[in-house]
Structure formats: C-alpha cells, structure tokens
Q: What sequence folds into this?
C-alpha cells in the first residue's frame, strides 16, 4: 500500500511527515516525488495541481484536506474513485471557535472599540445583549451544529437555513430557496458555512445582503453583520464592500475570498469594520489530518464502509 | 416612599427615567436635586460623591449599580444601612459574553491577525485548539460561574480560584493564598473577576504574572494572557506593561484601570497586544438596573429578605 500527499500549498512536508508517523510501515510519498504512478493507492489532497490525480492508474481513494471539496471537484479530470471529506472533531471545534469569536466580536462592537482604542478614546457604545441578537447559520451540517452548540449558552436567538429541512432543538430552522427571504429578514448576524457548489456560487450578493435584518432589528446593533467561513466563491466582494459603504451592512468577518491569498489591492484589507483572516477559521493540525487520512486508508483496506463520502452530484 | 438616584457619571438621567418608569407612583429624584434630605428612603448609587449619602437621615437601603461596591465602601461616611449589590441575569450574561470574547480573541491570536491585516499580510500563525488551552478564572461567584458555563462547550481546560473552597463540575478548583501558585502555574489564560477589597489590591503584579503558565504551556500560544474585568485597583499597570514588553506575558484584555477613564498618556492604549475597553464588560441597561432597584425597594417595604446583601467586613 503506497500513499501520496499532493498539494500546491506549503504544508506538504508537514502533512507527509505526519502521515508517515501515523502510517507505520506504509510508503508515503510527497508530490512531485511520485515515483511510479502505478504504485499509488490512496491520496491525501489539498489544492492539488489539476490533472495529476488522473495519472494514477491504481488510485482507490482520495481524501480531501478540509471539509470543502471544491478544490478537487473543479478538476475536470478528477478520477472516478471514492472521495472522502475531512470531518473531524479538531476541525469542527476550530470552526466553532471561529464562529463564536466573530459573532461575539461584532455583537460587542469590537471593531469600533479597537478603532476608539487606536485613538486613545474612552467612549461607551450601546451594545445589545446576546439575547437581543438573532444569529442565523447557513449550513446545518456538522460544523453548523457545532457552531450552534457554542452559541447557545450565550443566549443568542438562533436560526438556521439549509438546503434540505433539518430540525434542531431551540433553533428556528428554514430550508430551501423558498424560505430564504424569511430567514434573512429576521437575521442580524449571518454566519455562512455553506460548501462551494454550482448552487451557492455568488449567493452572498447585494440582493441577499439587502434582505438581512429587515424586521425588528436590534436597536443597539448599528446594522446586520456577515460572517463567511464557507468558501470565497459564495461571496461577491464588490457587493459586500458596497453594502458596507452604504451602511446597509454594519460589519463583516471574512475568512475566505474570491481569490486567495486576498490580493494586496483589495479594499477589504483596509476596511475598519471588516475582519480578514487567511482562510484559517478551521485550519486543522497536520497530525489530526494525517490520523484521519490513515484511518480512512485502513477502513478501505479492511473493507469497512467509508465515512463522509462525497456525493458528486450534490457537490459535497 | 421617595427614592434617589445618585451618581457622578453621565448616566444619571437615564437611570432616573428608567426608575420612574418602573416605580409607578413613587417619587424618584436625581441628585443634586434632592429636595428635603429627610424624604429619601432608598438610593440607587453609582460613583456617588463622598459624604452625600450620610446626609440622608431616613435612608433605609442603598443599591449599587454594578456588582462591585468599592465605589461605595471607599466613602468613610457611608451610612450603616443595608447595602445591596447589583446581580442580575443581564449583568451576568454580559460579563460571560466579555469573557468568552476575550478568551477566544487571544486563544485565536487575533491581536496579531489584526496587526497582519493592517499590513495587508496573508500569513498563517499556529493557534492552539481550545482543548489545548488552560483557562483559569479568579472569582467563582455568579459571574465566574456564568463565564465557566459559556467557555465549557468550546472544550477549554477549566480551572478556578476563589477565596473560600468551591466545587464546580468539570473545573479544577483551588482556594486561598496557599493554592494560588499551583493554580497560576497551570493557567495559560487568567481571567480575573475578583472584587476590589483590601485583600485584592495590587494582586495582579509582576510576581503573580511571572507565576503564570509555568508548567506544560501550550506550544502554540506565545505566552500567558491576562484578562481583567474585576476592578482596576487589582492591577499594577506598570508590572503588566513590563511583563508584556519582556514577553513573559503574551497579551492582555483590560476593562478596568487604576485610574478611569484610562489617562491618554497610558502606553496601554497603544500596546499592540492589549485590548482596552472602557469599563463596559458588563455594562447593564438602565432598564435592567432600574427594575432591580425597584424590586429591592419593594422587598424592603414589604418586609421580604434582601438578596445580594453586602458583607462589609468581607468587602463584597
């Protein structure tokens, strides 16, 4: 059994070393040092170069680093072998931390307090209590549910939206395109955790942002907030900037971007009410990723069913 | 029954209006328009001018805005009538939000990410997962427990310290001076919620900070963190700045200061890893404060026992 780690990111060595550590006895290679392509049985992939996976004739399994698989499905030559998403308590927990942090950050108007601090100004701003703020989560999979679990004890009013209907205790759930406007109209802080699929491309646009928080807005939050830790292809950055500048959007936390790394020229870097992070909302450790990869490889080798298998027609 | 709102802050009018709203039929006066001092039966006080409460011969009850009563006990002429602290779900919830926000902020190295953003730099920093970080809460009263309840779902390793022994599910509890060094040595993020008393004055000094996180420090957090939302008299600001500059302390979030408002000249305003907020960690609404005040007044009038009565020998 020979494994390949394949990535165009700078984390390849780290992933390969961790995989060797957990794969006692297995041959782990790091692209581009593939050796004989026919040797490779399973690949751990993160932003792989297009076309390379198709050149591995005996590939039986692909494991994606990260919960999103758009970086793989966008390769028209992706081989037709089982593709597994990375879903792990480490990843999920980190996403919950990110969501908790960014929701609290804007509910407590921290972008403004940081700006006041920069000016050495001691000034009160009215802040809503958590129970006065409606947080809406788009995407109610493992990560959306983990986010809900950490937000609940603060007392936020929780609501959720997903493609297909879900029921979650204490959360007002909405589903499908038909419910979207109703969901948005009563959401003050929108948290997007959706995958990149043809259906979600450009979803976070001017129209969607204009629909946020139209009824019963918390008087002490200056406007609605967007938090996107899904994928950059969901957001129309020009529309987000437009809404921020017109103040129909109060603030945003963006972890993902149309182009990554976010280009130096983007005004998002310099907007006083935007928090930019380098796609690290849920960056897992190489150790946790490698453990997961090797577990999938062993499950496959021993004929156990694979978990978190991607449905390509759905896109995740 | 005649009530007095007394404060040197700029929130007096707001408090008095809210008290009138909730005190249907009662006469509510706002200092300095006291009228006949003999009329006043109960006072709602926040940073009152010293000596004035002693001039009210028929005062039967004092209610403090805020959980801390040092702003009252520091008045040598404070009349010997029952003094009640403000303890309310609104206040407690806001403190829990503040603690959750500031703990996550530093665990996720946000001060550094904000600095990177300012420089338009897309750069990863290793961050510990919540379950790799030991958060120690000093003060296990109502607010400390509320903070624990919101931190727990993230998976932080929780520990607590209090004057007298306490037992809290899933929290390693330490008590008294004898346990302090042990508690500090295994704390990465210290959250101080202690009241200002003669015993706590200057507690957060160089010696205490040097004792933090000495054993098994999380490799991915650059150093220990101090969060103080107790009282400014607890902290020695020169020592905190010294520890930050020597990098024995990684970062701090301070909501309270030796002198408030924090003087313009303080280097704390401009330190890149310090978050300064204007004593608003748990700033309650006038409405919630007035409701509480009027409830205490009615309890007293109808002979019910008073809640949250201050023990002056203890200082809170």
A:
């Amino acid at each position: 059994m020979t494994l390949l780690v394949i990535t165009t990111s700078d984390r390849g060595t780290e992933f390969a070393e961790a995989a060797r550590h957990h794969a006692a006895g297995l041959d782990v290679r790091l692209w581009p040092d593939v050796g004989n392509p026919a040797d490779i049985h399973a690949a751990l992939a993160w932003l792989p170069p297009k076309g390379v996976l198709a050149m591995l004739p005996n590939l039986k399994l692909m494991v994606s680093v990260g919960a999103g698989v758009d970086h793989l499905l966008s390769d028209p030559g992706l081989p037709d072998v089982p593709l597994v998403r990375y879903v792990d308590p480490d990843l999920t927990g980190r996403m919950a931390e990110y969501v908790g942090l960014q929701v609290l950050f804007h509910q407590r108007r921290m972008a403004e307090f940081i700006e006041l601090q920069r000016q050495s100004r001691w000034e009160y701003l009215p802040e809503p209590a958590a129970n006065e703020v409606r947080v809406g989560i788009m995407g109610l999979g493992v990560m959306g549910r983990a986010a809900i679990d950490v937000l609940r004890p603060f007392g936020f009013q929780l609501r959720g939206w997903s493609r297909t209907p879900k029921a979650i205790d204490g959360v007002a759930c909405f589903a499908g395109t038909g419910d979207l406007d109703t969901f948005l109209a009563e959401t003050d802080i929108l948290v997007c955790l959706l995958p990149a699929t043809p259906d979600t491309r450009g979803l976070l646009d001017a129209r969607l942002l204009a629909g946020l928080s139209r009824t019963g807005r918390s008087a002490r939050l200056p406007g609605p907030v967007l938090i996107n830790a899904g994928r950059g292809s969901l957001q129309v950055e020009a529309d987000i900037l437009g809404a921020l500048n017109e103040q129909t959007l109060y603030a945003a936390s963006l972890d993902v971007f149309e182009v990554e790394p976010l280009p130096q020229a983007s005004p998002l870097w310099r907007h006083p009410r935007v928090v930019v992070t380098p796609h690290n909302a849920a960056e897992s450790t190489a150790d946790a990723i490698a453990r997961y990869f090797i577990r999938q490889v062993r499950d496959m080798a021993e004929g156990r069913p694979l978990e978190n298998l991607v449905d390509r027609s759905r896109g995740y």
Summary: Chain B has nine helices and twelve strands.
